[in-house]
Amino acid sequence: MDPLKPRVLVITTMFPNPALPNFGIFVARRLRAASEYADLEILSPVPWFPFGTCLKRYRHRKLIPLRSEAFGLKVQYPRFLSIPRYFKPFDAVFLAVSIWWASRGSKFDLIDAQLAFPEGWAARLLAMIRRVPFCITVRGHDVNHLPEFPVRGQQVRYALSGATRVMSVAEALRQCVVSLGCPEERTETIPNGVDMKTFRPIPREVACQILKLELAKRYLVSVGHLVERKGHHILIESLALLKQRQRPVPTLVIIGAASEEGDYSQVLRELIAKHGLEKEVLLVGEQPPERLPFWYSAADALCLASSKEGWANVLLESLACGTPVIGTRVWGTPEVICHESLGILVTRDAESFAAAFEQLRQSSFLKDDLVRHASEYSWEQAGRKLAANYQLAIGTG
User: Fold this and answer.
1) Fewer CB atoms near the end CB (10 Å): N or C, the chain?
2) Ranges for the Glycosyl transferase family domain (predicted)?
């Protein structure tokens, strides 16, 4: 431990673990960069309720140890009671108890909550007990969705109002934070970065050979959990429209698996069968990060049909590989795809995506421009800015 570095207790329910090595990987990368400037103690509480691991959706939780290491960071995974559906507002209460107990022997100068809820609410309570300041990083659903719920909305506002600093991953989210009552002078936008060593252009011939794809075909990729809000079904419907109109139909590769949020895979399979797109849509499951550059490089475009996104990491990953984006105009996405030379922005419907696929066939994107834009965002830069906010929070707390 470096006595010159601030001591920060980090609370995040999203963090890689042995059962889910890719879960919250963007949080881990940011914290790894910040750890160069601060001593971090990371708590990644795991939701628990009686007999929960008997259910398929939550079965992986029993494989998560109490302690582990990820990205060179030591992590604790304490459990907290979390009852699904109607009792979600109590998550913050039980989380507060869990982190209080797990950190009872620790000394720290600041608490860093990696979401406004439940982490932010719990952090405010613990900060009052330990008499230290706390800061929050908002990432999307915690401020653009949860405020729609009466109780959790109030909990989010309570957390934001007490934070010394509030960081957002997108400017649209920062403005949302201000609209929820947080003083603007306490806020700052710190975009996510991209690992340019992992995500880099690969010759298309090589990528197709490695992935056993036909070089003559045109491919689109959609990366994300198999849940409704990711919009994979909209992309399938757009291919169906092209097929009905006897237009060229590209092959859509859907990369992702079910999550605790839900499992939309059966709906997708039924939709594929309904439109007879078995040859045009490939469900390849979850892929490790080091394999994604091959998929991006083999594709003509990344498609992101999400209804909600804070700052989708797949956007920069695709651009870093020299592949343009077709995405919806939601939250942080227009901040990444900020020029027509980077991709095509559309409304979230099958007709718009079908038109964009046709437009893509007539467009040309300069690979060097895409890579150059992605390179402007680094995890090192994000880590430095986060650490600077730690110092501000401690100095004004």
Assistant:
1) N
2) 213-367
